[in-house]
Amino acid sequence: MNFLRKETAGLVLGACLGVLAGGVSAQQAQELKIAFPVDVPTWDPTAVTFPAGQSVYKAVFDSPMFVDDDLQAGPRLIESYRWLDDTGTRLELKLRGDVFFHDGSKMSAEDIKFTFDRARGTKTLALNGMMPTVSAVEVVDANTAIMTFSKPTPTAAKYLSFLTAYILPKAYFEKVGEAEFLSKPIGAGPYKLVDYKRGSRITLEAFDKYWGGKPKIDKVIFDIVPDSSARVAAVESGRADMAVQIPVREVSRLEKNPKLDAKVYPYSELYILQMPSYEPVFQNDHVRRAMHMAIDKQGLSRAFYNNVAKPVSVLATKGSPGDVPDFSVPFDRKAAVQELAKAGFSVEKPLEIKLFSTNNTFPSDYDVARAVAQMWSQIGIKTTVEEITVAKYLELSHSSKLTGVMLYSWANATGDPEIFSGRILDPRLRFSTWKDMALAEEIDGLSVEMDEEKRVAGYRALNKKASENAWSLPLLQSVSTVAHSKKLNVPTYQTGYILPQEYSWKE
Q: What is the pTM of this model?
C-alpha cells in the first residue's frame, strides 16, 4: 500500500468543477460517513487487544511497523530496523524525521521509550502482554532507539505492527495525565479526534501534518450502529456513505443497487470455537473431538458466506506459514456420534452445554452459532446459544469465567503462527481459554527460535496436535463485508482494516 500522498492543488476548485460535471458534491469531497458496528472500549490503544476497533485506532494513532496487503511487516513510523546481535535480543529502530503528533509536537525516540516503559510499569496494559519480553528501551538520539528483550524475540518486528503497538506522546500524556488523555487523546495518525459521543459517534478531522500526507477526505464520521440491518439501511438510504460487517446475504442484494458497490472478501482472521478447559465437561477428549467432527464447515461457508469463507482444520489461515495442507478434520457425523458415545452421551441421553456468540459484530456470527448448535444437536449435544457482547466476552475470558464454548473471530493481521496458536493456546495469557500448562514449555521454545524454518515447522506440529486433541476448534477463515457509494474509491485489504485515509471520492 502506498501511504505517501501529495496534496492536490486547487481542491476547492476541483470539487466545484466536479459538481458542474455531475460528479460528487463539494460536501461529499470533504466528508465520509461510515456505519460501523462497534465503539472503541478505551482511547488508550495500548490498553486492549480489540480487533474490531483497530480501524479507528489506525486512523488516530500510528505504529512503528505496518503489515501490508501481502501480510509482510515493513517500516512505518520508523525508516529502518536491524538486529544488533545474533541472539535476537537487541533491536535498533531508526525513527522517521517527519512524524508529528496532533498537537504539533515532533515524535522522537523518547516517545517510543515512554510508551513501552509505561506498558512494562503498569503490567495491565495489553501492550505488555503482547510484547512481554521487552526489558528496556534505550534512547540513543532523537531518532534512534534500541529495544532490549529478555530473551530472543524473532517476531518483534511483527508485533511492532500489530495490536496495541501504537506510540503515545510522552510530553502531552505527562502534561495532562492519563484521565485527560483518555478524554482528549492525540496520536500521530492521519486523523485527529475532534468530537466523541460514546456509543454513538466518532468524528475525525484530517491532520495536515501527517507524515504520509494529508488524507484526501477531510472529515470522517464513524456512526456506531451495532445492528447490522440498521447499517444496511443507513448505506441504502444514503444516510451513510459506507457500511461494514454487513450480512453476506445483504451483499448479494446490494450488489444490484445501481448506486452502491458491495463486496465479500476473505481476510487474515479465523472463526474459532474456544474451549474453556476449566469447565469440567470440556476436559473430556471424546466430547471435544465429537464436537469438532460434527461440524459441516463447508456447509457453513455455503449457507452464510457464499463459499468465500474457507474451511480450516488448524489454527492458521490457508497458505499462511502455520498451515498444514495435508491435514484435515473431516465432517463425519457418524464418527462424531461414536466418539460422543465414548463419553457416555447420545441423542437419547444428551449432553447440555452453552455456546456464546456475538450478534452482528462479525458477518453472520450469530447465524453460524445457531447452525453449529443444530449440528451438535444431531449427535446428542443439546446446545443453548446465548448472545454476548465483545466487552462481556473479554471480561469473562480474561477472568477464566466462560461457562461455555465461545464463537470468536481471532485477529492476526500478520498471519504469523505465533499470533494464532502461539497465543490462542498459551495457558498463561488472560485471553487464552485452554489452560493446559503443559503447553507453556513448547510455546516458549518456539517463541525464541531464531531459525525461521525450525520455528514454522514447530508451529505446524503444534497446530496439528491441537486439532487432533480439539483444544480449540478452527472453523473458517473469516470474511469481511462492505457496501459503499459507487462514488467512493474503497480499496480492501487482506488485513480486513477499514482505512479511510486511503479512500477518495471519484471525480
A: 0.79
